[in-house]
Design brief:
With 250 residues, the protein is mostly beta strands. It has no helices and 26 strands. The protein has a seven-stranded parallel β-sheet with strand order 1-4-7-10-13-17-22, with no helix packed on it.
């Protein structure tokens, strides 16, 4: 939990994993105060198989399982994957907690260098990344970025932006491959207790849900971007599957 301004942390060529645990937990790397800048070098590092096991609990957590800024304003977290990259593999959240990254309030997360999100998932929104509904949040991806085979059961197989005039920008080569949303009503280890009265939306990305919805979100791609094999499925009665790649809602 980072409170000191201008903090510099280096965790290179490491592997982080976890013993099983039941409820949601705070981010492994977290800022929970305003006006703090943290520079975190994660080149060659992997976070894998981290997440709660009690899929019958709807305990909710508005923060990323691995990386998060939860409260305050004007804080910045710089995550540098370098040339080798940082990998987030098979991590998962519970209910409103995304699989890896959660950004809340008027704060900024910058991913510098290479980053790969693969096989992460959550019960509700944002299999890898969730950007919540407070105006002014900023998330930037500067280098090569991959989202592969991430999933959720409601919105945004890879990324969900709830609304609130958020800014998400990709400046490097970006790949969204085989991400999906599957709108089941049955709890299971891969689809824990979740919202089941919504249409499934955005196999790769969903933007908008709470006011002002999608009209308040700026989603920008400045580099070569590919969407390949992303999809949505909704087997629930009288519900539709919307936006195999991208859904704009509200």
């Amino acid at each position: 939990n980072i409170f000191q301004n201008n903090s510099n942390i280096t965790l290179k060529n490491a592997i982080f994993t976890s013993q099983p645990f039941i409820g949601p937990r705070y981010s492994l790397l977290k800022i929970e105060t305003g006006n703090v800048t943290a520079n975190i070098n994660l080149e060659g590092t992997t976070f894998q198989d981290i997440g709660p096991t009690d899929y019958n609990s709807f305990a909710s957590a508005d923060y990323g399982n691995i990386i998060g800024i939860r409260t305050g304003s004007n804080s910045v977290m710089n995550i540098d994957g370098g040339v080798t990259g940082v990998n987030f593999l098979r991590n998962h959240g519970l209910a409103d907690q995304p699989g890896v990254v959660g950004l809340y309030a008027q704060n900024t997360i910058n991913f510098l260098g290479k980053v790969n999100f693969e096989g992460n998932w959550t019960g509700d929104y944002g299999g890898a990344v969730a950007d919540y509904d407070v105006a002014g949040s900023v998330m930037n991806f500067a280098g090569e970025t991959s989202f592969i085979n991430n999933h959720s059961s409601v919105f945004g197989g890879a990324i969900d932006s709830w609304g609130g005039a958020a800014n998400i920008t990709f400046n490097g080569s970006t790949l969204f491959s085989d991400n999906y949303v599957y709108g089941t009503t049955v709890n299971s280890p891969n689809y824990p207790e979740h919202v089941d009265d919504q249409h499934t939306r955005g196999g790769a990305i969903n933007i908008g849900y709470l006011n002002p919805g999608a009209s308040g979100v700026n989603l920008t791609f400045n580099g070569n971007t590919k969407f390949i094999g992303n999809y949505v499925i909704d087997p629930k009665n009288n519900f539709n599957a919307l936006g195999g790649a991208v859904s704009a809602y509200g």
